């Protein structure tokens, strides 16, 4: 098929078969398009917040602001008021006989709530307001109350002093047991983006109410216990949390060859406030494959930090979002892109992009996944290939090129990498029915249990086409406010 025909096919599938209505208006897309309109295929006919991230970004680029607003409002109606889960957003929802039915994890394998859904809602809300200019929606009481519920859920006392968010296995895109419990990278990066977005939305509301600075009116007696006073308190607390979180992530999660060599030589069994090896990482826990993986210029954010058990696996989405949200510095972003280019045979292969590398194998797979047949080595989330991830890499690299520039050689490398993989999409995705994921060391085989006509595969391709062929300027759509900008308010 020619490029134009593939684009027309993808748009037709998306707009005519994937989008669904709630309350009589389009609200978002189902996870995958069924062969038979009456077929029930697990929960793939539901509207997932996570799966609708690329959908909402594409709709904003296509000027369909009203659908995005309806999606955000529908999710907001479903924000939990239950005592134990107050403030969380559902993993998914569906309209059945005119009634909205939401899943907060009670139907998931492992019965785990999708923490990333709540974090993504706040980020999408900010992106919607920035793109549409709908400041009135941001300043509405419903939205601001929803943000306060979310912040009360996140910014609360706990048994841990770490600024990271502690979650179980299955709490994000990797939604089955894969030894990602604790402080997984993707959740921490999304937490950073969500807090930036929440503060940005609060400041829009305060500005609309005439608060030129946070202190300008809050000290008046009639406002001391007001909702605005709570907003200003939460804003201040969130900014302090953001500062701690970024410093922590750069110190504990970022590695390159020099840092690894330092880690290997640190003492163990230390106690006290001033220690070099805070998490008591033994040399044996640092894998030898890192030598070739990092090279002399590469760097990335590791998958997890836990006492004595760091996870050095490379997780694609968390690293790409770390660049998009400017969690890592421009120099670190350049090191990340170099690492991904250097290891393109492993990460991109014949179907970009691999979700994590390397996969758990042999005894590790058996013990850490519980013999999960879907997560066999090189399958599904255990080293499988997900085309829905490629547009995040495209945004990260093109955004960096626009803001900071690249040398001629580096620019050519990135351009060729993007173009070659886009050509792979054009050739393979229509032939293989827009499969959900691909298996094997090279990503050649359609996933063993992959759904076909997966919406985020279709929309991920459309986004890649848009950024590479239509408007590279639009890669700035996911820009969030910076810590410096928020602190100046």
TrEMBL record:
Catalytic activity field: Hydrolysis of terminal non-reducing beta-D-fructofuranoside residues in beta-D-fructofuranosides
Keywords, ordered alphabetically: Carbohydrate metabolism, Glycosidase, Hydrolase
Keyword Hydrolase in annotation: yes
UniProt record, GO biological process: carbohydrate metabolic process
InterPro entries registered for this protein in UniProt: 6-hairpin_glycosidase_sf (IPR008928), 6hp_glycosidase-like_sf (IPR012341), Glyco_hydro_100 (IPR024746)
One MF annotation (Gene Ontology) recorded for this entry: beta-fructofuranosidase activity
EC number: 3.2.1.26
Family the UniProt entry places it in: Belongs to the glycosyl hydrolase 100 family.
Protein name: beta-fructofuranosidase
Source organism of the structure: Tumidithrix elongata BACA0141
